[in-house]
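Let us work through a complete example step by step.
Step 1: write down the sequence.
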Amino acid sequence: MKLPSEIDKKISHLPVSTMTRRTAMLGLPLFVAGCGMSPEGFFSGGDYGSISDDGHVIPPLDFGVIDRDKLRTQVAWSGKEKPGNVVVKIPERHLFLVMEGGRALRYSVGVGRTEGLNFRGTATIGRKEKWPRWTPTPNMIAHIPRYRPYAGGMAGGIDNPLGARALYLYRGGTDTYFRLHGTTEPETIGSAVSSGCVRLFNHDIVDLYNRVPLGATVTVIQ
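Step 2: predict the structure and record it as tokens.
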């Protein structure tokens, strides 16, 4: 699939493959809850086309459904956070990876449907997983009975609600059960529909996973 011309211009230095177009909306509705510098505003990541990854295929984003302004991009950053820190601004539906030189890489995210479900404050990335296994928490099962069949967990894969990668937030050495992860429903990025965790396009969580090491600081702002 060839990306739209506006995107091609911004990533003309990157290889863009030609492929058969297929929809990116693969997610099961019940899984929404799974838990060089470029100028500002310019796309600055990898390809949003089809990706073959560890035996799984991440489908291309469908730009007939997804706004191109949700793609990751470099922006100016004036915060006090150190390079390598991650900041999630829940009201803005954005995640920022702080970089050198007063810049940050901005990603669009999906967040919890109610403020009370959203983690807040500072934590560290205590674990990273590729194609993670998903297990709903007892609280999720109690409130959403259709999760009961997955009480024993669901193997990683393209239909798994955690998507292609998961970064697990820890505080004081204890798992907070809050994750930064991929999604089965890319069209929901930018909205508040999950049970609290922060979701990114699968392409973006792969990019973030590759950039952020274990122990990195994550601050979530309500």
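Step 3: interpret the result. The chain has a mean pLDDT of 81.
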